[in-house]
Amino acid sequence: MAAANPSSQPSLPWRVGSSIVMGVAGALSRLALFGANTTEVHGLDHFLELLEQRRDVENRKRGLITVSNHISVIDDPLIWGSLPFRYHFNPKNHRWSLGSYDICFKNKIWSSFFTLGQVLPTHRTAHSEFGGLFQPTLREAVRLLSRPQSTASPLVHRSSSSADPSPLSPDLVDPFSSPSHTYTYSTNGVDIFPAPSSYNSRRYSWLHIFPEGRVHQHAQKTMRYLKWGVARLILEPDVCPDIIPMWIEGSDQIMHESRTWPRFVPRVNKKCGVWFGENVGGDGNTVFHELRKKWQKLVADSLGKNEEGMEVGVLNGELQYGPEAVELREECTRQIRGEILKIRRLRGLPDEDPKEGLVETWREEGGNREGKMDDGSWVKDT
Question: Quick one: 305 exposed, middle or buried, by C-beta within 10 A (0-12, 13-18, 19+)?
Answer without folding.
Answer: exposed
